[in-house]
Design a protein that fits this description.
It contains 17 helices and 18 strands. By secondary structure, it is of the alpha/beta class. The protein folds into 2 domains: 181 residues, FAD/NAD(P)-binding domain (3-Layer(bba) Sandwich), CATH 3.50.50.60; 224 residues, FAD/NAD(P)-binding domain, CATH 3.50.50. A hairpin with a 2-residue loop joins strand 6 and strand 7. Helix 1 packs parallel to helix 8 and helix 1 runs parallel beside helix 17. The longest helix has 19 residues.
């Protein structure tokens, strides 16, 4: 059977859309299939009555995101549409928020850490700088298979309890006892201080929407199965199927494993080892702007697990950028502690809203009274969990990609970020072009 299209991309997250954009520019016929009615994946935004609610990713750093910024420039999205975040990051301790987390001056002010813990943090930062950690090759570090918890045990106790553990819980949804420290430190070293982090004025789905405008996209089109043949693959839907010369599974690893009917044996170990953490958020649309207890220009308040078993992060979206809310209003997002996410993931929405608000009231006085409406975001496959086993298998898996069915996503790089997803999408497009370029057919 002749292939109907050159490439079918399954998944309209940033990785799949980036790959489709590159392949279309190279002259290939490409179609993107998204199972839901929304694009952007973990970079999606809900718009409601003047509020912009980011359901997944929260920021885009200036540093360490070179591929992303090149793509944004190409799409005509300049830095005025992604200004620096106005507030800082705080750490909750001793019943108050301590500012300056992820800022150089935090080593001086403490950011909730005692002097001995700050000295240990300086030692770790010096070690990371000396080895020039590469976020694209997180396995190539001196930390081996050590977990975040393993590293924390070597240093001052507070460094783990009041920095490492709350940061990995807040930004990755990770269990520090399961997740390798190498990707964590590699990413932190790459992105630099929080003073240079930015957000998209029009919502975190800004690049996804710009990419979607340039590709052939079908939403609400769930794929049931992908079957690879020698030179093409069949994509099966509920009532029909199509054939493509190449298929790109730009979905989380567990979803890719479930969709791909006949993956090569050498791909299975990493696909099976690449687990994901889930994320549950409750967004509270407020009739006024609220601040953390004690005040301060904080846009993200990290709550260590030793302080609270229910909430790990409080996001003040109206501080992150005023465009997120109507004039005079507020928006606060509470992110559930990874320890309680399994029991909340399938819970009724009102139960999640109530439970998180009860805990969040301690950090945001007046939260329940000011709430006019609340909504819940659940991301079953939130971020790739870089376990030591997955880390050990990653490089071998990536080096052998390039078949009829390929993969894209931040999990391929074990770099849990939009930059990881964009890089994976670009590399997947290059592999597909290499495989499908025929003699006499010029590559673009």
């Amino acid at each position: 059977m002749t292939a109907e299209i050159d490439v079918a991309v399954v998944g309209a997250g940033i990785a799949g859309l980036t790959a489709a954009h590159r392949l279309r520019a190279a002259g290939r016929s490409v179609r993107v299939f998204e199972a839901t009615d929304r694009i952007g994946g973990r970079m999606a935004t809900i718009r409601s009555a003047g509020y912009l609610v980011d359901t997944g990713a929260e920021q885009v750093p200036e540093r360490g995101y070179d591929t992303t910024w090149r793509l944004l420039a190409e799409l005509g999205i300049d830095r005025s549409r992604a200004p620096r975040i106005e507030g800082g990051i705080g750490m909750w301790r001793h019943d108050r928020a301590h500012p300056d987390v992820a800022r150089p001056r935090g080593l001086l002010t403490g950011a909730g850490l005692p002097l001995a813990a700050r000295w240990d943090l300086f030692r770790i930062m010096a070690l990371a700088a000396r080895h020039r950690l590469d976020p694209h090759r997180p396995e190539a570090t001196p930390f081996g298979s050590a977990t975040v918890a393993d590293l924390a045990r070597r240093y001052h106790r507070d460094l783990g309890e009041y920095l490492f553990h709350p940061v990995v819980a807040a930004f990755f949804g990770w269990d520090p006892h399961r997740s390798a420290v190498a990707p964590f430190l590699s990413l932190l070293a790459a992105v630099g201080p929080a003073t240079r982090w930015r957000t998209y004025v029009e919502g975190m789905d800004t690049p996804a929407r710009a990419l979607a405008d340039q590709v052939d996209l079908s939403t609400s089109s769930p794929v049931r199965q992908v079957v690879a043949d020698r030179d093409s693959a069949r994509i099966l839907f509920e009532h029909n199927e199509i054939r493509a010369r190449s298929v790109l599974l730009a979905v989380p690893a567990p979803v890719a494993l479930a969709l791909h009917a006949n993956p090569p044996e050498h791909e299975l170990p990493f696909l099976q080892a690449c687990s994901f953490t889930s994320v549950v958020k409750a967004h509270y649309l407020l009739d006024r702007r609220l601040a953390p207890r004690g005040g301060g220009r904080i846009y993200a308040l990290l709550v260590p697990p030793v302080e609270d078993p229910t909430v790990c992060t409080v996001m003040f979206d109206h501080v992150k950028h005023p465009s997120r809310v109507p004039h005079g209003c507020g928006l606060v997002t509470l992110i559930a502690n990874p320890a309680v996410v399994p029991e909340l993931l399938d819970a009724p929405e009102q139960e999640i809203v109530t439970r998180l608000a009860e805990a969040g009231e301690h950090y945001v006085p007046g939260l329940r009274e000011a709430t006019t409406r609340a909504m819940v975001s659940r991301i079953r496959y939130g971020l790739p969990e870089a376990t030591p086993r997955a880390l050990g298998l990653r490089a071998g898996f990536e080096s052998r990609l390039g078949g009829v069915v390929d993969y894209a996503g931040d999990w391929v790089k074990l770099r849990p970020s939009s930059e990881g997803a964009v890089c994976a999408g670009e590399l997947a497009a290059s592999r597909i072009l290499d495989r499908t370029t025929q003699p006499g057919r010029q590559r673009v």
